[in-house]
Amino acid sequence: MTPPDPAKPKRAAIVYNPIKVDLERLRAAVALAESEHGWAKSMWLETTEDEPGHGLARRAAAERVDMVIAAGGDGTVRSVGAGLRGTGISLGLLPSGTGNLLARNLGLDVNSGHLEASVDTAFGGYDHAIDMGVVEIDREDGTSEEHAFLVMAGLGLDAKMIAKTDPELKKKVGWLAYAGAIGQVLVDKEVLRIRYRLDGGEERASRVHTILVGNCGSLPGNILLLPDAEVDDGLFDIVTLRPEGFGGWARIWVGIVWENGVLRRSSMGRKLLNLRQRPVRALRYLRGRRLHVDLDRPEEFELDGDEFGMIIGFRAEVDPASLLVRMPQASAD
């Protein structure tokens, strides 16, 4: 792809979901940032149900823009990021959804009331390279599809929870809408029987309730699901949940909320964890660059918090440093 001409003012494209943003306010914030940072007038591209952002990002890249701002929910961010993967064109993030998963993991401000500050970060920040995940999923009818993701891919209870969440309720109350679905999926006693291969190693078999492949590890509510995950380390962090009864679920909850969310955030807490002789059996962590999983039956699958239907297997691989993201200049300094 032909690089932008350095002699010309930089130019951005705004890919926005009209349902998620206050367009008048966003246009005013962009116009101010363009003026203050010496950028040319931006392209404005509206998403639709049939075009959530991937094609629009590719269109903007063909116009040789320097940055594409994704103004929408996690689905918009994932789709725009997938369109920019490998182009060298940076992605700007605005807090416009309920999860804002990538922005949370990058330590960006996810308060929608700080829209103007987020726009200023995009126009006045610097580029930081992060990894992306690429996953090929197999359908029951024999077809396969390739998708990219930024945060997490998974199947089992988390994917079922997302599939059972009322989308209209999620629009109104955000992540609280998942509470009702949690009650439905926790009574699901069916176990997944999987065969998996990590980094081309020998095939192994396991029985799990959930398997998650993460490019980064934080969720809303200060939940640190994958405590060692880094968005730019060239590796996936993988967790399987294998609870046995109510005690198993309680142990998982303690492990994720207390140990990951509290103890691992301090040096003293990490020392206490290192003294523990036995790991939590219900939680198993792995790391690698490539993961191949086959299932014994079709299961719900999710990417970055969006449902992707039923699959019978997947192959996930890290694409290192394949996406540039705009970060606050203060963090570079």
Element layout with pairings:
Layout: E1 12-16, H1 23-37, E2 43-46, H2 54-62, E3 67-72, H3 74-84, E4 90-95, H4 101-105, H5 115-124, E5 126-138, E6 144-149, E7 152-156, H6 157-164, H7 167-173, H8 178-186, E8 192-198, E9 204-208, E10 210-214, E11 218-219, E12 223-224, E13 236-241, H9 245-260, H10 267-275, E14 283-288, E15 290-303, E16 306-327, H11 329-332
Parallel strand pairs: 1-2, 1-3, 3-4, 4-16
Antiparallel strand pairs: 5-6, 5-16, 7-10, 7-15, 8-9, 8-15, 10-13, 11-12, 13-14, 15-16
GO molecular function: kinase activity
Protein name: Diacylglycerol kinase
Keywords: Kinase, Transferase
Q: How many domains would you count in the coordinates? A: 2
**How much helicity do the residues have?**
25-40%
CATH architecture of the largest domain: Sandwich
Q: Kindly, what is the distance between the CA atoms of the first and last residues, rounded to a whole number of angstroms?
A: 31 Å
Query: Any idea of the CATH topology of the largest domain?
Result: Tumour Suppressor Smad4
